[in-house]
Amino acid sequence: MDLNGKTNKIPEPFLRLLSHLVRQPSVVGAEHSFFRVLQRELEERGAQVTWYEGLLVAQGKKPESLMFSAHIDRHGLICTGPNEFQYAAFVAGARSDLLGNSVDEQLMRKIVDRFQKTKVYAYEPWSGAYRGQGQIKNATICEFRNNLIFELENLNHLVAGTPVAFTDSLQITEEALIGQLDNVLTIAALIYLYELGFEGTAFFTAQEEAGKSWRYLLEWFRRFGGSTNQLIVVDTSPFPDFDAASQQHLVLRHKDANASFNRELDLRLQHACAAHQYSVIYKDEYVESKNQVLLAQGLPTMSLGSTEMGRIISASNGLVDGTTLQIPTSGYHTMEESAPIASVLAFLDILQALAR
């Protein structure tokens, strides 16, 4: 299949690539070894790859024709002292970005009990060399450090600064792809796009879960970008359960908690989805509708979310503009994040339509 092809099942080459990438560690703040894996996979598919601090840039023969961005970091732990482990995203972010508007902060108390008995393994962040495996005994919230603190078995030999990834593998059912999908699912899709002949640019950013990725991306645009830089950031988007995630094929946005997105590009994506008969939902409208009900019930409201796209629009003073294209999932930020097969097929199809 090439960029003009369409299939009613997920292509095997894409599934093999995704299965491979899911098993590669990329804990937020310790992504170097994953960058090395990405570089090899992209260069094998003909892309020209350049590596910057916190950013890997892949370019085809027409780099300005279309630009995508995906973050490469996934949640995990970091050793912060003798037999002490913390949630890596909040350590990498130095907690300076905890402004109350991120999904992570609202999820922290909900997910604290989800990690019991989860298998983990430690690795050397630059090379990816294996440093041992263990299992989570317990996880608690430390009110003084505003972070999740973990107790692990069999990893008390690790020194501070060692990343610890969740042991993962891709599960495939008739309805869904399951695993720690955020954001390796869309990374695999962008790499696969080069296999099909994509000639544009793809950015792969570090430390998105710590709220830092937009800084690395903005530095690139300040050095090399032109006067108009329309960017499409691809990601997964959380829903309360699998039924809710399955109600639409793809997720768009008018805005997040930081900024309004590019309306013209929003409409282009919406029209592309409509032309291929894929249903979409605007996540900001979905959240605002839910919040009206919650307010009427006197309950806490949901966050609009703080995304890479919104942060870079807000900080770039007009240099960078764009929007997002997201795959709906359930079980967000867990080892059982589930993406409907129909949504994954739609995502791959729309990427190819845009690339054409």
Low-confidence sequence ranges? 96-103
How would you classify the helix and strand content by structural class? alpha+beta
The oligomeric state of the chains shown is: single chain
Strand arrangement, major sheet:
1-2-12-3-13-16
| Number of strand segments | 17
Which superfamily, in CATH terms, is the homologous superfamily of the largest domain? Answer: Zn peptidases
**Sheet with the most strands, sense and barrel status:** 6 strands, mixed
Mean pLDDT: 89
Radius of gyration, in Å, reads: 19 Å
The portion of residues assigned to helices is: 25-40%
Strand fraction band? 25-35%
By CATH, the architecture of the largest domain is named 3-Layer(aba) Sandwich
Number of domains: 2
CATH topology of the largest domain: Aminopeptidase
The helix count comes to: 11
Provide the succession of SSEs: HHEEEEEHHEEEEEEHEHEHEHEHHEEH
Briefly, what CATH class of the largest domain?
Alpha Beta
Shape: globular
Distance between the termini: 13 Å
Task: Produce the secondary structure layout.
Layout: H1 12-22, H2 32-44, E1 48-52, E2 55-59, E3 67-71, E4 76-81, E5 84-87, H3 88-92, H4 103-111, E6 119-123, E7 130-142, E8 147-153, E9 163-166, E10 171-172, E11 176-179, H5 184-195, E12 201-205, H6 213-224, E13 230-238, H7 242-245, E14 250-252, H8 263-275, E15 280-282, H9 283-296, H10 308-316, E16 321-329, E17 337-340, H11 341-355
Parallel strand pairs: 3-12, 3-13, 13-16, 14-15
Antiparallel strand pairs: 1-2, 2-12, 4-5, 4-9, 5-8, 6-7, 6-9, 7-8, 10-11, 11-17
Helix pairs in contact: 1-5, 6-10
